[in-house]
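Hey, quick one: can you model this chain's 3D structure?
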Amino acid sequence: MRIALGLSALVLAATGVACSDQTENNESGTAGRADELGECADVWIDGETLDAGYQGCSVDGQPELPSVVTCESGDQFTTYDDRFFAVLGGEITEASAGSAEYEAAVEECNAA
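Sure thing. Here's the predicted structure for all 112 residues.
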């Protein structure tokens, strides 16, 4: 039940104020600059480190802007393609959004 609540809180936070400012900044800062963003396939690699200043990546020349959620700790958590997640500046993990590994990360993000 706690995991479901944590996941619900993350989903709500992702659609609320916590990430809206970050998304707005990314939209104005990266729109039209897909050529300056790394290819998503080159950025989102399991076990690699996600850049602390991550502002998105590109697929076929089109920008993929992140939805960033601020965790209780102040860390910023994001996902890509429903199969990768990471804290900005942290290790990238390949795990689906419904996996136990993902849910544990969401619960840790929401821990007080």
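One thing worth noting: DSSP finds four helices and six strands in the chain.
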